[in-house]
Every structure is written in structure tokens, then in C-alpha cells.
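Lecture notes, unit on protein representations.

Consider one protein chain, 297 amino acids long.
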Amino acid sequence: MSAPSTARSTGPGAAMVLSACLSIQVGAAAAAQLFDDLGSWGASALRLLLAAALMALIIRPRMRSWNRMQWRSVVALGLTLGGMNGFIYAAIQRIPLGTAVAIEFLGPLVLAAVLSRRGRDLLWVALAFVGMGLMGVESATTAATLDPLGVVFALLAGGFWALYVLASAETGKQVPGLGGLSAAMVIAALVVVPIGASGAVRVVAEPGLLLFALAAAALSSVLPYSLEIAALRRLPSHVFSVLMSIEPAIAAVVGWVLLGQSAGAMSLTAVALVVVASAGITLGQGRPRAAPEPSAA
């Protein structure tokens, strides 16, 4: 009787994570169309501004009632969102999408290993790590050059991604609904805009670029982060992190389909390893403990 109950509780959270992964990468492909005109930081700034505006209009968070602990979690989430988004766009401008996301994933993957309490979970993490390594090796060996600065940016994005997992989980516990995420998006925009403002303003001369910016804002921010914060209320942080291991595989597919970046035998092998690791850690977990919903006060 416990197994069906576990499946019912784990299944929706896993579906949310996978949907968020797909949405983020399609949004990243849309944002890549802005890099030539706005630059990576300009595209990131514009995307975050639009996403913050959309979420503020839809959610309308009641921030006046928040206490110091709630604000602390929201500010932390905003800072991690800003760093994660800014640096991964800077990386994607310099190295292929699949490579950038594979390197970025080292952050949450290490977090999953640190948070794990079961030896079996560490084996699944190791298997996912092998998959990421294969994908990174193929991308590095088939590319003419792998921009070192792009690799550094991807590693920085990975560090912020790991912090985002923790900050998002804490915000989900402290702030009811999506109000905390909405406010954090505004903070993220305020962090990135000073860096990317000079590029973002170029959209005035090319209003058609707003369509790509809106697509990136909706697909890479509003929809996936809403799904992720809901998933983190249903899944332990380390399970969430390893489920996210599917994202580099999705990034490779999206890069191939939408950006013309080919995938070879190593990438296909990596996809298989990642899927097995994700399924293994999800099915091997006991009943997830959902984060308690905070009171409206």
C-alpha cells in the first residue's frame, strides 16, 4: 500500500521538474537569438525584467506582511537567480548549449552528493556524473575550440544553481504560494540590470526582438521556476537535484533541433545514463516528505 502512495506523491513532483527542464532549454534557445543584438547580459537583463513584471502582475505578492526570516529567504533566492541566469547566458554565448548546461550541472550534482543520506543515492549520483562527463567530453572534442571563459561562466552558473536549489526550497517553506518567487525575480532583475542595461536598451531600435525576450521570460523564468518551487515542496532537495540531471540531455536535444548543434554517440550514451540515474533515484526513494505549507500570516 505504501508503494502506490509513494508513486502518487513522487510522480507529480517529478513531472514538474522534467517539464521545467524542457521549458528552460526552449527558452534558452529563444534567448540565444538575442545575443548578437543585445549581448548575453543584455538578453538576461531584459528577460528577467519582463519575467519580474509578468509575475508581479499575475501573483501580486503581499510583501508588507513578511517577517525578517521570509525576506531573508526571498533575497537569497533573488541573488541566486540573478547569478545563475546571468552567468549561464554568458556561457551559452561562448560554448554550445549542451556543453554549458552539462558543466553547469556540476553544481547541483555536487549538492545532491553532499545532501544524500544513502549509499545507493551516491551510486546514482556517480552514474549521472559519468553521463555529464561523457556529454562534456564529446562537446569539447568535437568543437573547434572550447572558450575557457565560457567554461568558467558555466561553472559559476553551476555554483549559483546549487545555491538556488537550497534558497528555493527555503523560500517555499517560508513564503506561501508564489509570492516569494515573484519578489525574488524582481531582486534578480535589479542585480543583473546594471550589468546588462547597455545591451538591453538596444531592443528599442529592434522592437521585434521583444517577441524572443517575452518567450525567454515566460519559458525560462515564469513557468519553470513556478514548477520547480512547487516540486521542491513535494521532493527532498537531493532527489530534486538528480532529477534535474535530465536537463543537460534536454539541452543537447534542444540545441540540436533548434540551434543546429549536432549530438553524437557519446551524447546518446550520456542521455541513457542520465535517464537511468534519474529514474533510479526517484524509484529508490521512500515516501517524500513534503515541505509544510506556511501559514498565510
